[in-house]
Amino acid sequence: MEKENKLNLSDLDKLYKADKELADLYIGVNSKGEDIIFKVAQAGNPLHEKMQRKKAKEIEKYRRFPERLKSVYQEIVGTSLLKDLGNLRDDEGEIVPSTLKNRIKVLHEYPSIMTSVIDIATDINNYLDLPEEETAGGEDLDDSMEDIIEAGKEDTRKNLKK
Prior knowledge:
- The chain has one domain (17-129, 137-161).
- Helix content is 49%, strand content 11%.
- The protein is built from seven helices and three strands; from the N terminus they run αββαααβααα.
- The chain has helices spanning 9-16, 46-54, 56-61, 66-80, 100-109, 111-121, 141-161; strands spanning 22-29, 35-41, 82-84.
- Strand 1 (22-29) and strand 2 (35-41) form a beta hairpin.
- It is flat and about 70 Å long.
């Protein structure tokens, strides 16, 4: 008879239980030189699941109408995943309040941001505090990510000067 191994849930908790409620989504640099970093909640959070259930009939109803369907998804993401617009500023240089209306407007006007929010929200690694030795290939991913962010900031600053 085969011996049954006990499932050690604490090992799974260490690997897959979220440590953080929100993850950062770096957008760029605003007109005042400040980083624009949106805050994104993890997909599957209670509000996200509630919104998906609430909008299920609308999703089915508008399946053949892509533009209307897209607006339903923007409402779900703007309500339950995209939580803060960081240092986003308007044309007058004022901080854009992170209201539901403004979050949905950003998602509507910039589809690539909608995609990025969903990508961040669905990747468990964005919500874990992993020790450095557990990064891919043993390299420090935080340092390489910082290099990528700095390069993006520099590109944004150059574009703002044009």
